Amino acid sequence: MEKIAVLGAGSWGTALGFVLADNGHDVRIWGHRQEIIDGINEMHENKKYLPGVELPMTMRGYTSLEEAILGVETVILAVPTKAIREVLQSLEEVATNPLTIVHVSKGIEPDTLLRISEMIEQEMEPAKLQDVVILSGPSHAEEVSRRQPTTVTSSSKNMKAAEKVQDLFNNHQYFRVYTNPDVIGVEIGGALKNIIALAAGITDGLGYGDNAKAALMTRGLAEIARLGSVLGANPLTFSGLTGIGDLIVTCTSVHSRNWRAGNMLGKGHKLEEVLDNMGMVVEGVRTTKAAYQLAEKYDVKMPITQALYDVLFNDVSAKAAVDSLMSRTKTHEMEDLANILGERKN
Ligand SMILES: NC(=O)c1ccc[n+]([C@@H]2O[C@H](COP(=O)([O-])OP(=O)(O)OC[C@H]3O[C@@H](n4cnc5c(N)ncnc54)[C@H](O)[C@@H]3O)[C@@H](O)[C@H]2O)c1
Ligand SMILES: O=P(O)(O)OC[C@H](O)CO
């Protein structure tokens, strides 16, 4: 059994700490908000992010990063993408041994257009970084922490490290972990599905039905696969847990913050009001900006992303964005992906 630090005491960090504690590990969860950490230590509950879940006694909260990572070899990085660099810089300062960093966040950094594993490699000195592993897939904290059956994927450039993380998290009762060596595909699928979930929430908010949602999910997956393939992902990854799997759960679950934010936008609320209301991270907003920039840079057609970008940042109404998608020039369903795959073969 291992001593493991979880950095980020939000919904996902707390739920993953819960799984690790269930698996017999000594879990140290670090957060920057004293009242959350006090609640975990004194009441065994994270009232703000995971209310109603009794946390195991073997899970201890820390506000000192130095103390949380003392004697630890594996660190789970579970903060929103926006906070990743800041937390890594603090980690770099206090780390005394090479760490395996398991990141579980779903985003791409706007402007640098880096995936999170690339940000980790950029911020951590090689002497303090053993391996980078990604844990991703269709998984809502609310269900995992109630021990409901969930499947995810562990991915790394070093498959031994991915398998080690598979063993740390795998729980025969409710948490099944697969492996996949396609780091790019796993990270791109996990990040970009949030864009489509925002769009699915918007069409639901506008009062459109299941046909519209099925269209968005299917054509959304096509544009995720187009961009992912250009970036070097294995297109098959997008038919797996971190592709279609995560797209399904995020577009259809009431737990999804991205779907809920989209739903409010579709009902006519302003973005700022929606984000204030949520009180938790809605990764899809920044990821839309990053994916829009990637689409421009690599000249990849991403009409749903582009329409959502206009709703979020150019004050285009949700209804006008749907109309613009429906009136696009006619096309062949598989044309673009077929071209990209053809180019990769040649
Ligand atoms: N919630 C889920 O079910 C779920 C599932 C899979 C993946 N994820 C991903 O996990 C990541 C984290 O999401 P979450 O659901 O835990 O978010 P959350 O909004 O529930 O919690 C975020 C946590 O990060 C903390 N935080 C923010 N900025 C910080 C900083 N600078 N330093 C330290 N802590 C900081 C907040 O205080 C909060 O505790 C996201 O990328 C999300 O997409 C979430
Ligand atoms: O609640 P969301 O929309 O951030 O989604 C959480 C997870 O990524 C679902 O797999």
Automatic annotation (TrEMBL):
<feature type="binding site">
    <location>
        <position position="106"/>
    </location>
    <ligand>
        <name>sn-glycerol 3-phosphate</name>
    </ligand>
</feature>
<keyword id="KW-0963">Cytoplasm</keyword>
<feature type="binding site">
    <location>
        <position position="281"/>
    </location>
    <ligand>
        <name>NADPH</name>
    </ligand>
</feature>
<dbReference type="GO" id="GO:0047952">
    <property type="term" value="F:glycerol-3-phosphate dehydrogenase [NAD(P)+] activity"/>
</dbReference>
<feature type="active site" description="Proton acceptor">
    <location>
        <position position="193"/>
    </location>
</feature>
<feature type="binding site">
    <location>
        <position position="12"/>
    </location>
    <ligand>
        <name>NADPH</name>
    </ligand>
</feature>
<feature type="binding site">
    <location>
        <position position="137"/>
    </location>
    <ligand>
        <name>sn-glycerol 3-phosphate</name>
    </ligand>
</feature>
<dbReference type="InterPro" id="IPR008927">
    <property type="entry name" value="6-PGluconate_DH-like_C_sf"/>
</dbReference>
<comment type="pathway">
    <text>Membrane lipid metabolism; glycerophospholipid metabolism.</text>
</comment>
<feature type="binding site">
    <location>
        <position position="11"/>
    </location>
    <ligand>
        <name>NADPH</name>
    </ligand>
</feature>
<keyword id="KW-0444">Lipid biosynthesis</keyword>
<feature type="binding site">
    <location>
        <position position="139"/>
    </location>
    <ligand>
        <name>sn-glycerol 3-phosphate</name>
    </ligand>
</feature>
<feature type="binding site">
    <location>
        <position position="283"/>
    </location>
    <ligand>
        <name>NADPH</name>
    </ligand>
</feature>
<dbReference type="Pfam" id="PF01210">
    <property type="entry name" value="NAD_Gly3P_dh_N"/>
</dbReference>
<feature type="binding site">
    <location>
        <position position="257"/>
    </location>
    <ligand>
        <name>NADPH</name>
    </ligand>
</feature>
<dbReference type="InterPro" id="IPR013328">
    <property type="entry name" value="6PGD_dom2"/>
</dbReference>
<feature type="binding site">
    <location>
        <position position="258"/>
    </location>
    <ligand>
        <name>sn-glycerol 3-phosphate</name>
    </ligand>
</feature>
<keyword id="KW-0520">NAD</keyword>
<protein>
    <recommendedName>
        <fullName>Glycerol-3-phosphate dehydrogenase [NAD(P)+]</fullName>
        <ecNumber>1.1.1.94</ecNumber>
    </recommendedName>
</protein>
<feature type="binding site">
    <location>
        <position position="49"/>
    </location>
    <ligand>
        <name>NADPH</name>
    </ligand>
</feature>
<keyword id="KW-0594">Phospholipid biosynthesis</keyword>
<dbReference type="InterPro" id="IPR036291">
    <property type="entry name" value="NAD(P)-bd_dom_sf"/>
</dbReference>
<comment type="similarity">
    <text>Belongs to the NAD-dependent glycerol-3-phosphate dehydrogenase family.</text>
</comment>
<keyword id="KW-0560">Oxidoreductase</keyword>
<keyword id="KW-0521">NADP</keyword>
<keyword id="KW-1208">Phospholipid metabolism</keyword>
<keyword id="KW-0547">Nucleotide-binding</keyword>
<feature type="binding site">
    <location>
        <position position="256"/>
    </location>
    <ligand>
        <name>sn-glycerol 3-phosphate</name>
    </ligand>
</feature>
<feature type="binding site">
    <location>
        <position position="257"/>
    </location>
    <ligand>
        <name>sn-glycerol 3-phosphate</name>
    </ligand>
</feature>
<dbReference type="InterPro" id="IPR011128">
    <property type="entry name" value="G3P_DH_NAD-dep_N"/>
</dbReference>
<keyword id="KW-0443">Lipid metabolism</keyword>
<feature type="domain" description="Glycerol-3-phosphate dehydrogenase NAD-dependent N-terminal">
    <location>
        <begin position="3"/>
        <end position="161"/>
    </location>
</feature>
<dbReference type="Pfam" id="PF07479">
    <property type="entry name" value="NAD_Gly3P_dh_C"/>
</dbReference>
<feature type="binding site">
    <location>
        <position position="33"/>
    </location>
    <ligand>
        <name>NADPH</name>
    </ligand>
</feature>
<feature type="binding site">
    <location>
        <position position="141"/>
    </location>
    <ligand>
        <name>NADPH</name>
    </ligand>
</feature>
<feature type="binding site">
    <location>
        <position position="106"/>
    </location>
    <ligand>
        <name>NADPH</name>
    </ligand>
</feature>
<dbReference type="InterPro" id="IPR006168">
    <property type="entry name" value="G3P_DH_NAD-dep"/>
</dbReference>
<feature type="binding site">
    <location>
        <position position="193"/>
    </location>
    <ligand>
        <name>sn-glycerol 3-phosphate</name>
    </ligand>
</feature>
<dbReference type="InterPro" id="IPR006109">
    <property type="entry name" value="G3P_DH_NAD-dep_C"/>
</dbReference>
<comment type="function">
    <text>Catalyzes the reduction of the glycolytic intermediate dihydroxyacetone phosphate (DHAP) to sn-glycerol 3-phosphate (G3P), the key precursor for phospholipid synthesis.</text>
</comment>
<feature type="domain" description="Glycerol-3-phosphate dehydrogenase NAD-dependent C-terminal">
    <location>
        <begin position="182"/>
        <end position="322"/>
    </location>
</feature>
<feature type="binding site">
    <location>
        <position position="246"/>
    </location>
    <ligand>
        <name>sn-glycerol 3-phosphate</name>
    </ligand>
</feature>
